[in-house]
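Dear Dr. H.,

I hope your travels went smoothly. While you were away I took the liberty of generating a structure for the chain from your last submission, since the lab meeting agenda had it listed for discussion. I wanted you to have the full record in hand beforehand rather than looking at slides cold. The sequence, exactly as received, is reproduced here:
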Amino acid sequence: MVGYRFTEYIPPKTKEENKFDDLLKIFLELVTMSGGDVAESLSWLTNLDKQYNLTDKDYGIGNFIEDLKSKGYISEGGEKGEITITPKSEQKIRTSALDEIFGKLKKSGKGSHSTNYTGVGDEQGSDHRAFEFGDGIDQISITDSLRNAQINNGMGGFMLTENDLEVIENEYKTQTSTVLMIDISHSMILYGEDRITPAKKVAMALAELITKNYKKDTLDIIVFGNDAWQIEIKDLPYLQVGPYHTNTIAGLELAMDLLRRRKNKNKQIFMITDGKPTCMKQGINYYKNSFGLDPQILNKTLNLGAQCRRLKIPVTTFMIASDPYLKEFVREFTEVNNGRAYYSDLNGLGDLIFEDYKKNRKKR
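The corresponding predicted structure, in token form, is as follows:
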């Protein structure tokens, strides 16, 4: 018999739509590099167009700007009438970062940190047992319970008792609280190398990963220079390096304070940095030393690493520099914390963080 298969018709994109999508990818990349400065990004895009002929006579940068406005990617407003990106663009940047760094990931429900334990959780397992006091109604297997009632009580006078009830064990899922520390000291853009943009991309990708795939996990993001402060996920595209030293101590103290408030037993700190600690607060003043490893700053940093260890908070350091004396500092810090350390180039940073985050915390 000859049949027909009907599928949803997706019309092919027009030339203008293809051109817009191509330019959008470049534009969002430039927005990330410029710290959310739309005017500067469009200026760079115009220069790139002159150099590489990104547009043609039918679709130019002017058309692209109008499409950005009409499609809701940028808006004009404020007292000065400046152009800014919209939440739609922020979401698109995070999604692009996730696709670029972590690949295409399928949504997997409420948390996938599987363990070998059973208990209260979101996913039903395959193990069955008799009903016990305190079990939830949603855990009862209706089909198996009715079958038990028929076997135990016969078909004549059907009766369902507590002894007939059978429940399905829930799989215990670990929940993890993570603090991501990002170094925004001046060295992150020194020596002609942009280190802050890859760090931002990793942070945005990690945030998107957690919000999509691990809904019960938490992620707090900290930036640290002379001081340390918390930022929101939506602030990441606008993050820029400042004229700061590296106050790793302030970052660790704030991270520990945030994790104390989390009820999860599994806690961890990821720290992305390219240098040694060079600054700490003494009262209202800053104690700074950019020349070598200062003993006062180093000892305070190591003490905090040991304190994290006592609190069972491992610190994973991602050092995007390879100077021998920096490796010695990271080795010593990792040892007192019993954490982990990676020495990564900028291209491999995302893969390392993804793999480390995906490792299950085998705790209850």
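Two observations you may find useful: The chain has three domains: 15-85, 118-173, 176-358. The longest helix spans residues 15-33.

With kind regards,
E. W.
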